[in-house]
Automatic annotation (TrEMBL):
Superkingdom: Bacteria
Subcellular location: Cell membrane
InterPro entries: MrpF/PhaF-like
Organism of provenance: Devosia geojensis
Membrane topology: Multi-pass membrane protein
The protein's name in its UniProt record: Cation:proton antiporter
Pfam families on file: MrpF_PhaF
Similarity-based family: Belongs to the CPA3 antiporters (TC 2.A.63) subunit F family.
Keywords from the named record: Cell membrane, Membrane, Transmembrane, Transmembrane helix, Transport
């Protein structure tokens, strides 16, 4: 087995594994019972997409795909931070609403 054949086989196996991971992540996004579960699944989806881009870069030999991978990683990181801030703000608003409701019941 030559190096090119091994690389071709390894990238095919990698794409198959990433395809399975993609299916599992999409299932998690759909059935995730809570918002944080869905946010983590979206972060995993970004990671799987990053894996696809890197494997395709290795398969084709085009290093331009690595620039796309870097941009995708940055975008995924920023999206995760934005979702985390949204969840924290939503949780704080819910807590404040609960405190006001309890104060209204007591007073």
């Amino acid at each position: 087995m030559t190096g090119a054949e091994f690389l071709s086989l390894a990238t095919l196996i990698g794409l198959a594994i990433l395809g399975l991971a993609l299916i599992l992540v999409v299932v998690r996004i759909v059935i995730g019972p809570t918002l944080p579960d869905r946010v983590l699944a979206l972060d995993a989806l970004t990671t799987v997409g990053l894996g696809f881009v890197c494997v395709i870069a290795a398969r084709t030999g085009l290093m331009l795909y690595l620039d796309i991978a870097i941009a995708l990683a940055l975008l995924g990181f920023l999206a995760t931070i934005a979702f985390a801030r949204y969840i924290l703000a939503r949780t704080a608003a819910n807590r404040a609403e609960d405190i006001r409701a309890r104060a209204g019941e007591e007073g």
